[in-house]
Design brief:
It is globular, with a radius of gyration of 14 Å. Helix 3 packs across helix 5 and helix 4 runs antiparallel to helix 5. The protein has one domain. The chain contains six helices and no strands. It is mostly helical. The protein starts with a helix and ends in a 7-residue tail after the last helix.
Length: about 120
């Protein structure tokens, strides 16, 4: 059974469904690693994910207050996400997704640039 991202975040997503398995697998792999190390159990991991995710969202949204959302901004966000921890990469994806949803269709192609870096 595949665990979808909305299992963790209780949110609807506009990311095409074929990407869910890849992202979910990434999170499950990380979860298995932490649990195997004895660092945290599944409930702690999910709480940690949610906390990290929300903090990244808040930080980025705070910085967006007076900033025009442009293609350059999105490109910069995607570029930074390539070199970040998986949770930050995913949060960047979710933020970008939310922005893209409100912008033109052509920005959807930016999302595909990030997926190869999620592993």
């Amino acid at each position: 059974e595949t665990i979808r991202l909305n299992y963790y975040f209780d949110t609807e997503s506009t990311i095409p469904s074929e990407y869910f398995d890849k992202i979910s697998a990434s999170f499950l792999h990380i979860m298995d690693f932490y649990i195997a190390k004895g660092a945290m159990d599944k409930e702690q991991y999910i709480a940690w994910i949610k906390n990290k995710y929300q903090k990244v969202i808040v930080d980025v949204l705070d910085s967006l207050d007076n900033q025009e959302i442009t293609k350059n901004f999105l490109d910069d966000l995607l570029q930074k996400s390539k070199h970040s921890l998986p949770i930050v990469r995913l949060a960047s994806l979710k933020i970008t997704e939310a922005l893209v949803y409100k912008l033109e269709e052509r920005f959807l192609t930016l999302l595909s640039d990030v997926f190869p870096y999620i592993s």
